[in-house]
Design a protein that fits this description.
Chain B: It is found in: Cytoplasm; Nucleus, Nucleolus. The complex is a heterodimer of chains A (about 290) and B (about 260). Chain A is an alpha+beta fold and about 290 residues long. Chain A contains six helices and 15 strands. Chain A is flat. Chain B is of the alpha+beta class. In chain B, about 50% of the residues are buried. The N terminus of chain B is likely disordered. The chains are: A alpha+beta (about 290), B alpha+beta (about 260).
Chain lengths: ~290, ~260
């Protein structure tokens, strides 16, 4: 018997997939990354030895990025990886001694220390035992909190802080989880959209929409609620189409849906989603 | 072919005297012995999971969801230096011709889950996700033989979709031994013959073996080597299809999000 040969399973040539991008090398776990000498390996790469040769291989499916000597592979989809200074939205999962633990869509829960929140009065004072007992008066399990990543500890844990009037408990709005790589790091994450809806775009892919900013009074009308719902559906449409989410793209989808006369409930239908996202899709070059 | 082999072939295979290889050298479903069934798959089939894949190999259909790396549910399972990989293997009630009540904790499912867990524990770079947990949920929707093979391939795709770091890409393939012939990727009819069957999971680039399972004995050591050879070439062929799918999916994502955005 000869060596087994196979002929039937034959994929079509990859050039037909996305013709304009087909020159971009996409890695797959284990595939070799072409390197020069003295390359410095970073995230998403692994130095593996096969026999006597050492080659750099990818560990995720993504795009090879080079900065001078640094070689890294950026995955196209992954869990949120916190970085210091990111604006995030988290949900409180439990309270431990002097700290809250928040789900921030990362590999592990983030920690919000009692000493990293602004206590009422705004003055810097010692956190007493009494404060520790009153922790549930600030945030309890299930609360949504906007915060900033303060630092990463040595054990890989992430600490948050809410030491600014911008951050704190979120209420009276809609929460939309999206894929974290669609929210870019930007100067501004608290937006007042052109339609009047306030949006917090968390770097971790958690988005909060409300008809008014926090601590702003007034009654909510059905029209305002519908507006928030339309923005929410616009965000979801961008998420399904995998288009970067920012105030410009959200408003583009929002306006397109109104122009086309799309009902609120129809916005999540796949055919309509694709149609109203066309404008936002064309913005990707400018992004 | 020596006459002895011919006689044994004419005796037929299963209880009903089923002939697994026809005189033309084709199998029951018309495939050649080295032929893998048609593969169709898609990544990101589920929106709520961190990674997911739908995978078809002939009439075997599997859906896999990957959650994680995420915070472990129980404190007891936390490993301070690495991630814990957990796998759950369940079969739908309507997956086989006989409508039967299945339970994810039965012996076969537990064995399959354990095989997958061990195979992926070795490949996933668990040390880069300390104190976390990665869950792999397998749901067999239709079982026409090779459910474990399909599940492993689908789980590889789902893990890639979830962006979990792995040292290599795992591909699985099985080889049956019916009528003195090695048949790659046996269907349920061929598997039901109770003849030797080898299920192999290999690392696609380094060609290391992630998992190897042999049901009932092969005649000698040499035929085991042959079986390994057949399974490896089958796995390589499947890998080409999976690699193409990953590439196509990634390019589509890249195209819609834009290169610059990050």
């Amino acid at each position: 018997m000869s060596t087994p040969t196979f002929s039937i399973v034959r994929p079509p040539p990859p050039s037909t997939a996305s013709a304009p991008l087909s020159h971009i090398p996409i890695t797959i776990p284990g595939s070799t990354i072409p390197t020069e000498d003295l390359s410095v390996r970073a995230r998403g790469t692994l130095l593996s030895t096969t026999g006597s040769t050492r080659v750099l291989t990818a560990t995720v499916a993504g795009v090879i990025t080079r900065v001078n000597k640094l070689v890294m592979v950026r995955p196209l989809r992954a869990k949120y990886i916190p970085e210091t200074g990111d604006v995030v939205i988290g949900r409180v999962t439990d309270l431990a001694g002097r700290r809250w633990r928040l789900d921030v869509n990362a590999a592990r829960h983030a920690i919000l220390l009692l000493s990293a929140v602004n206590l009422p009065g705004g003055i810097q004072r010692r956190r007493t035992y009494q404060d520790e007992l009153n922790m549930r008066a600030f945030f309890t399990e299930g609360d949504l909190v906007s915060a900033e990543v303060q630092e990463q500890w040595d054990d890989g844990c992430v600490a948050l802080h809410t030491r600014s009037l911008r951050y704190g408990k979120l209420s009276g709005g809609t929460f939309v989880p999206v894929q974290p790589e669609l929210v870019k790091r930007a100067k501004k994450h608290f937006h007042r959209l052109d339609c009047g809806v306030h949006a917090i775009l968390g770097n971790n892919g958690y988005i909060f929409l409300a008809e008014r900013a926090e601590k702003e009074g007034g009654a909510t009308t059905p029209e305002m609620r519908k507006m928030v719902a339309r923005v929410r559906n616009a965000v979801l449409a961008l998420d399904t189409e995998f288009i970067a989410i920012g105030p410009d793209t959200i408003m583009s989808v929002y306006d397109a849906s109104i122009e086309e006369g799309v009902e609120l409930r129809d916005m999540t239908r796949p055919d309509i989603t694709a149609k109203i996202c066309e404008g936002a899709r064309s913005m990707r070059a400018a992004a | 072919m020596p006459p002895a082999t011919k006689r044994s072939r004419s005796r037929g295979g299963g209880a009903g005297g089923l002939e697994y290889i026809s005189l033309d050298g084709l199998r029951i479903d018309g495939r050649r012995p080295t032929e893998v069934r048609k593969i169709r798959c898609s990544l990101g089939a589920l929106s709520r999971a961190d990674g997911s894949a739908y995978y078809e190999q002939g009439n075997t259909r599997v859906l896999v969801a990957v959650y994680g790396p995420r915070e472990p549910h129980s404190r007891a399972s936390i490993q301070h230096d690495r991630a814990v990989v957990k796998c759950e293997f369940s079969t739908a009630m309507f997956a086989s011709p006989v409508y039967r009540r299945t339970w994810k904790g039965d012996r076969k499912s537990t064995a399959a889950a354990l095989v997958m867990q061990k195979a992926f524990e070795g490949v996933i770079l668990t040390a880069s996700y300390p104190k976390s947990q990665i869950d792999i949920y397998v749901q067999v929707l239709q079982n026409d033989g090779g459910a474990l093979v399909a599940a492993i391939n689908a789980a590889s795709l789902a893990l890639v979709n979830a962006g979990v770091a792995m040292s290599d890409f795992v591909v699985a393939c099985s080889v049956g031994f019916v009528d003195d012939t090695f048949v790659v990727d046996p269907s349920s009819l061929e598997s039901a013959s109770d003849r030797p069957e080898l299920t192999l999971a290999v690392l696609s680039h380094s060609a290391k073996i992630a998992s190897c399972q042999l049901d009932s004995k092969l005649p000698d050591g040499e035929s085991f080597e042959r079986a390994l050879e057949f399974a490896t070439s089958g796995a390589n062929q499947i890998f080409k299809v999976l690699e193409y799918e990953v590439r196509k999916y990634s390019l589509n994502l890249l195209d819609s999000r834009g290169l610059v955005a990050l």
